[in-house]
Design a protein that fits this description.
70 residues; alpha+beta; three-stranded antiparallel β-sheet; 2 helices; 3 strands
Length: 70
């Protein structure tokens, strides 16, 4: 499985960034505007420190699907 590493600078504390990344509730589409709808969000397994999620993001007429085991 490929590994994706994301590096970004922000003034937001690391705990808040990680909390947002692990938030798969209805708030997700507000936190991440690219998530057009939680209808395209399938949480397969959610633990305290891990998640297995399939998420669809609209790109024009196409929906890109990603599955992320965190």
């Amino acid at each position: 499985m490929p590994t994706v590493r994301v590096v970004a600078e922000t003034s937001v504390p690391p705990e808040r960034v990680l909390a947002a990344a692990h938030d798969f509730s209805e708030r997700r589409e507000k936190v991440f505007p690219a998530v057009s709808s939680t209808k395209r969000l399938d949480v397969h397994e959610l633990g305290e420190t891990s998640a297995d999620v399939t998420e669809g993001t609209r790109a024009g007429p196409i929906v890109n699907w990603e599955r992320w085991p965190l």
